[in-house]
């Protein structure tokens, strides 16, 4: 009987080891960014001192505490937008009129265009967005800290730390936008809610957006291949024929992976609270 007992003990040890390995990597998303506290606080001081001093003095330590307090040591699938309320209040500042820039599926190009708030101020150019941009973060309910091994993706659970953060920040950004609002969409992104080979003003999902704007009484202009954005794209591909001619034709070359659709909204109602 003794050999059987040794076998059972070995089996139990193997089962515990497997379970622990699974728990260490249970989510499909990257784990919390190492040195998260140093990065967030460092970005905070950089923003208020060099990037956008016009926001005035901010308590960067209190901002960090509010940020981590929203999700640290919590079930990573039970973090809600309301958990970031204190963080939002501490980082809030004015968004200059006529400089709000909304976007979808063209992040790098948008930030090149906005130029850290000099031309436009996208969400990632505000203090609340600047601090968390390109970072990963989530807490762990099994210990008093962060999960550095993995974090849940939105497909695994919507109420995760990152999804809820950006929802809260996006709503706040929209509410504090005023004047002429800019929207830049990627007209050639595959998939999505209304999958089409390509989109442009007056067609497919863009037409749906235009219909919503008209119904709500927002006057707007819509431009395909907005010239300022096209010039930025040509910086990366200067030898392409589309960048060396004055042709008004649409992009047909395979190098142009993003067809920019630019919509300007004249917001006559002050802040976008609806």
Commentary on this structure:
The protein has 274 residues and is α/β, with parallel strands linked by helices. The protein has 2 domains: 1-95 and 122-177, Up-down Bundle (ADP Ribosyl Cyclase, Chain A, domain 1); 179-274, no CATH class. 40% of the residues lie in helices and 12% in strands. The protein is built from 10 helices and 9 strands. It has helices at residues 2-24, 36-51, 60-69, 85-91, 107-114, 127-130, 161-175, 204-215, 227-236, 241-244; strands spanning 29-30, 100-104, 121-122, 139-140, 145-146, 150-151, 180-186, 220-224, 260-266. The strands form 3 sheets. A 5-stranded mixed sheet has the order 3-2-7-9-8, with helices on both faces. Helix 2 (36-51) crosses helix 3. It is globular and about 60 Å long.
**CATH homology-level superfamily of the largest domain:** ADP Ribosyl Cyclase, Chain A, domain 1
Kindly provide the name of the CATH class of the largest domain: Mainly Alpha
What is the topology, as strand order, of the major beta sheet?
Answer: 3-2-7-9-8
Oligomer: single chain
Structural class determined from secondary elements: alpha/beta
Strand content: 5-15%
What is the chain-wise order of helices and strands? HEHHHEHEHEEEHEHEHHE
- Our count of domains comes out at 2
**In angstroms, what separates the terminal alpha carbons?**
74 Å
- pLDDT under 50 segments (min length 5)? 1-8, 10-24, 248-259, 267-274
Tell me, what's the shape? globular
Q: What is the third-level CATH name, the topology of the largest domain?
A: ADP Ribosyl Cyclase, Chain A, domain 1
| C-alpha-based Rg, rounded | 23 Å
Helix content: 25-40%
Number of strands: 9
Pfam family, one: Rib_hydrolayse
GO molecular function: NAD+ nucleosidase activity, cyclic ADP-ribose generating; phosphorus-oxygen lyase activity; transferase activity
EC number: 3.2.2.6
Signal peptide: 1-24
